[in-house]
Amino acid sequence: MQVPVPSPRPLRVAIAGNPNAGKSSIFNALTGLRQKVGNYPGVTVERKLGRCQLGEVAAEVIDLPGAYSLTVQSPDEEVARDVLLGWLSDHEPPPDVVVVVVDATNLQRNLFLASQIIELGYPTVIALNMTDLATAQGAEADPQRLGQLLGVPVVPTVASRGEGLEQLKATVLEARASSVRAPMAPALEA
């Protein structure tokens, strides 16, 4: 008699970032879903879940509400923080990998949240989004140099056109395979 082998839990990928950075556009492109996308804060006010394949790996993708910081000042930021820290009441595990969507036209504002998430110790990938607009504005970012400075991989994307998404998928898998989540400081543990 064979004992059934439980299927492995899907890879949990959280998509985080400032409002209007393109999180929901990347979520929609990865999952094939059509979450509401808008150019004003608060479009995603709760976490949205979807599934996709990253190569041979099944993934559960979590579209987090936009947040400027993990220091909570709004219900949106509270949802994002709670998912990232694994503080959900339904005992969902924290993400395995975090994709931080960064607006390439406004790096200074977007990198504050990115640095906070990187400090949590998760395998992290930066999706440097709207690179087409940054180039048009003469503010071209260097993804390789940014990755060196942050210590995490950076993938240039144009989510509205689906550019860079295959590289993003591959980089998420590489980040998970090559990184082990560092334990949080005791003061941050639930």
Describe what you observe in this structure.
Strand 2 (48-54) and strand 3 form a beta hairpin. The protein has helices spanning 23-31, 75-85, 107-119, 131-136, 143-150, 165-178, and strands at 11-17, 48-54, 57-63, 97-103, 124-129, 154-157. It has a single domain, classed as P-loop containing nucleotide triphosphate hydrolases (Rossmann fold), CATH 3.40.50. By secondary structure, it is α/β, with parallel strands linked by helices.
Going across the biggest sheet, name each strand in turn: 2-3-1-4-5-6
User: Quick one: CATH class?
Assistant: Alpha Beta
Write down the overall mean pLDDT.
84
- Report Rg: 16 Å
| Main beta-sheet strand count, sense and barrel state | 6 strands, mixed
Proper CATH architecture: 3-Layer(aba) Sandwich
Shape: globular
The number of strands is 6
Distance between the termini: 42 Å
CATH superfamily: P-loop containing nucleotide triphosphate hydrolases
Low-pLDDT stretches: 36-44, 181-190
Number of domains: 1
- Percent of residues in helices comes to 25-40%
Reading the helices and strands in chain order gives EHEEHEHEHHEH
CATH topology: Rossmann fold
Beta-strand percent range = 15-25%
What structural category arises from helix and sheet content? alpha/beta
Quaternary organization: single chain
> What is the number of helical segments per DSSP (H or I, 4+ residues)?
6
Feature tags:
Rossmann fold, six-stranded mixed β-sheet, 190 residues, globular, single chain, alpha/beta, 6 helices
